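A further point concerns the way the authors explain their paired sequence and structure data. Each protein is reduced to its one-letter sequence and a matching series of backbone shape codes. An entry of this sort, consisting of the sequence and the corresponding backbone structure tokens, reads as follows:
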Amino acid sequence: MITVYKSPPLWGLPSFSPPCLKLETWLRIANIAYDIEIPQDFTKAPKGKIPFIDYKGKLIGDSTLIIEMLKEKEGIDPDRDLTSTEKAISLAFRRMLKENTYWGEVYIRMNIEENWQFFKQILTNTYFDGISTPESEQYLKQVRQSISNQIYQQGIGRHSENEIGEIINADFQALSDYLADKPFFMGDKPTTLDATAYGYIANIILPPLKSLIIDRVSQYKTIYQYCERMKQEFFPDYLPS
């Protein structure tokens, strides 16, 4: 049995962390059984963050590396029937979601004050038993500053909220155009791209946060319907939201 260390469910989603939701979705697509642990600190996390797993007594971090390892060790690959061209397209979309779309998502949570106050309370509830203390306030302040610095250094944090909206909207336009009327991104069967897409997209459009960015991408009904299909297909135990 694999143990997955991840962030807890929230907003009707199995996890409020995109990489955690990506990994858990992939495990369900691959039909690999797992247990769940919600760590209170990340001291034993191999990469210093979640998700990570305990696999046969070995701790392994990073959702992408975990998935690639499980493909090899378990002999299960949802992408095995894809052509080389389809695999290239899948990789490009996954990189876009992780290296670009994700940062717009983090901006929404961390850099918009109203959202941060809401999200800070969620972090307080999760990691400090809902009790705000000077120590927890200082810790979360440092976390926010560190992540805001990362957003700025990555580049997207140098733009206005409206400009970021244009950038993320372009990602959603590409996703919507490619998905079209297919049940899954690569056709009739779910693949690693679907695990990644659901993990990152759902964590933008479903949380009750406010942003011009969310206003821009809310026009893509195809994406909303896709997220609902993914939820019903792979996480019926989390319904209703």
Observations:
- The longest helix spans residues 84-110.
